[in-house]
Design brief:
By secondary structure, this protein is an alpha/beta fold. 33% of the residues lie in helices and 21% in strands. A hairpin with a 4-residue loop joins strand 4 and strand 5. The two termini are 27 Å apart.
């Protein structure tokens, strides 16, 4: 490998390059930290790149104040270090960030901050990855590595839908993505339209109610709403337990019966359930069911109004697909996120046009020529943890073999010198 690297530099034009003695990890969110910890545990060196100025920038900079983990902490902890025992079952945003900070400190993970990747390509001549970055001060670097781990995940960039009149509406009224939303305090007394009925949309509506705002939520498509807990037990934990003994379709039947008993008929409030069950839909399309934390009760009392899809915006108004128009003061787009991989990754065999691995779970973690992906399973932190362990084990196998061969070569070289 060293000979190949020397040949690469000899044949390439001069530029500021850096050889990575080990793996290069792009992204210092939970997924990247998990891979780094697992590699560190196996003695494999690596470099960890992060475009922001902190770890887990999505959690630190683009989440609302009242956010808590939707799943019990045992399903959200990273490899090799569990949550502290005194943490509640559903840690808060601050507690989760504190956990990640302590995780990075425990494993001595030191990302290179404020360094944005703008081009990744594979050099078939020398069988190495070339990763070009730009630092905050404008300095351009190029990393050369044998193993590349893409850990930027599914939620790199916010999705802003194109809706007629939205841009003009935003000239005089407030329009923001949920990544900019912190608290409902600034919306007190205002009529707010929340676009998107996933977990974030429901949580934002609940927070708005608690701050005396008047939210309406757009429910354009069907969605599964499940109670977060049943008799003090996590619904997700119950589903995981049942899946060990029952097929998915049976588990879905059980979940829907439980949801009906606990939540009642939500269809009469304008929320339609998909024809496909919640777990099957999650496995097939990656669509996560909404785990209710109180928003549904506000919908039942009318504090949160459910409205159908949007046709167009006007000054201070929105026209819905059913012809109704309602007055609004602000719009919050809880329309999710997407991968940003297509904007900088030139290889197209592994990732699809949307920036997700083409191979379905559980095989989407490994590509060809030392390429890996973590955080793209659409199975949250638990999915990222599983992939991080696999990736580290796979890299460590080759690393140990190459290190062993290098030591044998070095010993042989020393013997030859001593004989001379």
């Amino acid at each position: 490998m060293a000979d190949v690297f020397r040949q690469y530099f000899h044949n390439s034009p001069p530029r500021r390059c850096m050889w990575v003695n080990g793996a290069l990890i792009i992204g210092a969110g939970p997924s990247g930290l998990a891979v780094g910890a697992c590699l560190k545990d196996r003695g494999v060196p690596f470099i960890l790149l992060e475009r922001s100025d902190c770890i887990a920038s999505l959690w630190q900079n683009k989440t609302y104040d009242r956010l808590k983990l939707h799943l019990p902490k045992q399903f959200c902890q990273l490899p090799k270090l569990p949550f502290p025992d005194h943490f509640p079952e559903y840690p808060s945003k601050k507690q989760f960030i504190d956990y990640l900070e302590s995780y990075a400190q425990h494993f001595d993970l030191k990302p290179r901050f404020n360094e944005t990747v703008h081009c990744v390509s594979y050099d078939k001549t020398c069988n190495l990855w070339r990763v070009k970055t730009v630092m905050k001060n404008g300095v351009e670097l190029e990393y050369i590595c044998q193993w590349l781990v893409v850990a930027t995940g599914e939620n790199s960039e916010s999705v802003i839908p194109e809706i007629e009149g939205l841009e003009e509406f935003g000239l005089s009224r407030s329009v923001m993505h949920s990544c900019e939303y912190k608290s409902g305090e600034e919306f007190s007394g205002k009529k707010v339209l929340v676009v998107g009925c996933g977990n974030s949309g429901m949580e934002v509506c609940l927070d708005l109610c608690l701050h005396n705002a008047f939210p309406s939520i757009v429910v354009r498509n069907s969605v599964h709403v499940l109670p977060r807990e049943v008799m003090g037990k996590s619904t997700f934990e119950i589903a995981v337990m049942l899946l060990k003994w029952m097929p998915v379709w049976v588990v879905d039947k059980v979940l829907l019966v439980v949801a009906w008993l606990v939540l009642g008929n939500i269809g009469k409030y304008g929320i339609r359930r998909p024809l496909v069950g919640p777990m099957e839909l999650k496995n097939r399309e990656g669509k996560t069911p909404v785990l209710d934390t109180g928003a549904l009760e506000k919908i039942k009392t009318g504090d949160i109004k459910v409205v159908p899809g949007i046709k167009r915006f006007f000054a201070g108004k929105v026209e819905l697909v059913n012809g109704q128009s309602i007055d609004i003061d602000s719009v919050i787009l809880a329309t999710g996120y997407r991968s940003n991989v297509p904007s900088w990754f030139q290889e197209s065999e592994f990732f699809d046009k949307n920036g997700y691995p083409k191979k379905p779970f559980p095989n989407g973690w490994k590509g060809e020529a030392g390429l890996y992906a973590v955080g793209f399973t659409r199975r949250g932190l638990s999915g990222a943890t599983v992939d991080a362990v696999r990736i580290a084990e796979d890299i460590a196998k080759v690393w140990r073999e190459e290190t062993k061969q290098a030591k044998q070569f070095s010993a042989c070289h020393r013997r030859c010198i001593s004989q001379v």
